[in-house]
From TrEMBL:
Keyword Transport: no
Ranges for domain ABC transporter substrate-binding protein PnrA-like: 51-353
Mode of membrane association: Lipid-anchor
Protein name, UniProt field: BMP family ABC transporter substrate-binding protein
Species in which this protein is naturally found: Terrabacter terrae
Keyword Membrane: yes
Family stated for the protein in its record: Belongs to the BMP lipoprotein family.
Compartments (UniProt record): Cell membrane
Signal peptide range: 1-19
Pfam name, any one: Bmp
Top-level taxon in the UniProt lineage: Bacteria
Keyword annotations: Cell membrane, Lipoprotein, Membrane, Signal
Cited CDD domains: PBP1_PrnA-like (cd06354)
Length: 354
């Protein structure tokens, strides 16, 4: 990880503090987060929730928006008072810690950190604030662990297996693709599960794989241009179905699919409902990762006094991952996908993670 200078850290903290003070109305929502840290707040209840988004922020139509859905539900149904802040490309570890601490300093004593990039920041901030309850999405490492930290993770490989099977059942060229935003262990789970599902249907299927960036460059989760270029190359090379696990970069994959007259597969949210209207008809299905469920469960536990630290895994059996049927494009193969789904739940099929 890169290290910010002391001056940069102070500036980042001050900027966040100013942003956090900028809004306190009842119905505000955070902008997309691509231009800098932003903060919004709403409501006046005693249940105070601060949410720190990953790169792309609210409005990415994917991972961050799935988390935002859980926060919005808590605001509507539990009367939560919420404040939001977003990460930026290339930021330092100290900037992430500053963001979490600024939410706490503003009075938000239950914090949700969206994304594994917050692991060290959560671990250190949680230790420094033992009376604050934390949840981190997508990390179960020792870096973020603590007696006041709920580690929310998902069986992404299981959901990816199902959309991989769908891709293999639908391909007419016996050639499909996978685009990952950043090459990390987490995104590797999506790739490996997708490949396993496709090969369970067609052992000889050709699968192209492309990662947009390598750590510590996380811009691969928020670069429409990179996503489009990678997908263009795959479609031109003969692939007719491409699955992305690339956050906001997935918008470029959908644009490329539309231009090529081919299929794309979405991720995290049901993207045939969230993507721009002009590309929804090329989204074959989406691997749904119910981040909203994990976030809402954390907030509910805080409200009910039943919070427990440790790792919670949301898999197919728990309803934490699934595949989408919006558009009706996979209606003809749904029974086959559901058969695979039940075999995974029963343990008849064990999906690899790496």
């Amino acid at each position: 990880m890169r290290h910010a200078t002391k001056v940069a850290s102070v500036v980042a903290a001050a900027a966040l503090g100013l942003a956090a003070c900028g809004s306190s109305t009842g119905n505000t929502t955070s902008p997309g987060g691509t231009g800098g840290s932003t903060g919004t707040a709403g409501g006046g209840g005693s249940l105070k929730i601060g949410m720190a988004y990953d790169v792309g922020g609210r409005g990415d139509q994917s991972f961050n928006d799935a988390a935002a859905k859980g926060l919005d539900k808590a605001k509507a149904e539990l009367g939560a008072d919420v404040k939001e802040a977003s990460a930026v490309n290339g930021e330092s570890e100290s900037a992430r810690k500053d963001r979490l601490q600024s939410l706490i300093d503003a009075g938000y004593n239950n914090i949700v950190a969206v994304g594994f990039a917050y692991a060290k920041a959560v671990g250190e901030t949680a230790k420094a604030n033992p009376d604050v309850k934390f949840a981190i999405v997508d990390d179960a490492s020792p870096d973020s662990a603590g007696p006041n930290v709920d580690q929310i993770t998902f069986a992404e490989e299981q959901g990816s297996f199902l959309v991989g099977a769908a891709a293999a059942l639908k391909t007419k060229t016996n050639h499909i693709g996978f685009i990952g935003g950043v090459q990390t262990e987490l995104i590797k789970k999506f790739e490996v599960g997708y490949e396993a599902g496709a090969k369970a249907v067609k052992p000889n299927v050709k699968i192209d794989v492309k990662y947009l960036t390598q750590p510590p460059d996380f811009s691969g989760f928020n670069s429409v241009d990179k996503g489009k270029a990678a997908a263009d190359g795959m479609y031109q090379g003969g692939a007719d179905v491409v699955y992305h696990a690339a956050g906001g970069s997935g918008g470029g994959v959908f644009t490329a699919a539309k231009a090529a007259g081919k299929w794309a597969i979405g991720v995290d949210s049901d993207q045939a409902k969230t993507a721009p209207a002009d590309v929804r008809d090329v989204i074959l299905t989406s691997m749904i990762k119910k981040v909203d469920v994990g976030v809402f469960d954390f907030i509910t536990a805080v409200k009910d006094g039943t919070f427990k630290a440790g790792n919670r895994i949301f898999d197919l059996k728990a309803g934490g991952v699934d595949y989408a049927t919006t558009g009706g494009h996979i209606d003809d193969i749904k029974s086959k996908l559901d058969d695979y789904k039940q075999k995974i739940i029963s343990g008849q099929i064990t999906v690899p993670k790496s």
